[in-house]
Specification:
The structure is a homodimer. Chain A starts with 13 loop residues before the first helix and ends with a helix. In chain A, helix 2 crosses helix 3. Chain A has two domains: 64 residues, Arc Repressor Mutant, subunit A (Orthogonal Bundle); 40 residues. By secondary structure, chain A is mainly alpha-helical. Helix content of chain A is 55%, strand content 6%. Chain A has five helices and two strands. A two-stranded antiparallel sheet of chain A has the order 1-2. At the A-B interface, helix 1, helix 4 and helix 5 of A face helix 1, helix 4 and helix 5 of B. Chain A binds a DNA duplex through helix 3.
Chain lengths: 126, 126
Amino acid sequence: MIKFLLDYSSGMPIYRQIIDQIRFGIASGQLKLGEQLPTVRALAVELKVNLNTVSKAYKELEIRNILETQQGTGTFISQTAHIVPEKEREDKLREICTQFSSVALSYGFQIEDIIQTLRHIESSKK
Amino acid sequence: MIKFLLDYSSGMPIYRQIIDQIRFGIASGQLKLGEQLPTVRALAVELKVNLNTVSKAYKELEIRNILETQQGTGTFISQTAHIVPEKEREDKLREICTQFSSVALSYGFQIEDIIQTLRHIESSKK
DNA sequence: ACCTTTGTCATATAATAATAGTACACTATT
DNA sequence: AATAGTGTACTATTATTATATGACAAAGGT
C-alpha cells in the first residue's frame, strides 16, 4: 500500500497531488497493476480532506484509464495502466529538485551539506 | 536579466511560480543583489498575465524583505536579502531536507537519482 | 431480505486565483 | 510645470479548489 503525502503549502491542488502520487506510484512499482486503492472515504480521513477531493482525483484517473472503479467494491489500478513516460519522470524529478534547491541555497546551505543531510535522513530510516 | 518561464498546466498558481523563480534566480546567482527587476507592467505583458498577478508576487517578496520597492522607480533585489541566523541553520537544513526527502521518495525516486539531479542542477549554474 | 460498504451525484458555501478596468501617488526627466 | 513611467489601491467578475451535507446506486456479505 502506498503512503500518500500532501504538501499543503506547495500551491499544488490536493487532488492533483493525489493524482501525481498514484501515477508515479505505479511508475515506480509502489503500486501494482490490479491493486486496490484506499476507498475514497478512507483516504479522505487519512489525508484529512473532503471525500469529494479524493473522489475528484480518482474520477480523473478513471477517465484516463489509469484506474478502474467498481461501484460498491472499490477502486483499482487498471490492468492496462500505462507507464509514466520516462521523460515525464525526469522532468518531475528535476522540477522538485530545482524548487528544493532554490529554497536550500537561499538559506546559504552548500550542496555537499545538503546531500550529506539527505543521506543521513535516508540511512536513519532503516 | 532573468528569463521567466511559466507552466500554466502545473496547477501551481502563477504568482507562486514567479516568486519561486525570483528566489531561485537569487540563489543561483542569475539575479544580483540590488538588481532591478522588470516592472510589473513589463513582466505582466511578457508573461501574458494580469498586472495584479505580478504585483501580488512582488508584494509578497517585499514583505519577506527579498525585494525592495521604490514607488515611481521600480522593484529591486534587496541588498540585505535573506540571511538566516546561524543558530537556526542546522535545524532548518534538517527540516527542509526531511520534507523534501518525503516528497521525493513518495514519487518513487531513489536517493542516488535525487542526489545526482541536485548535483546536476548545481553544476549547471556555471 | 437486510445491511454495510463501496462509488456517485447534487447542492450549497467559502476561500483562493486570475482577470479587467480604473484611478491615484510617487519619481525622474524634459 | 508637464509628462511618462513607476508601484499601489480598489472594485468587480469569473473560474477553480475545497469543504459540508445529504441522498442515491451498486456490490457483496450476513
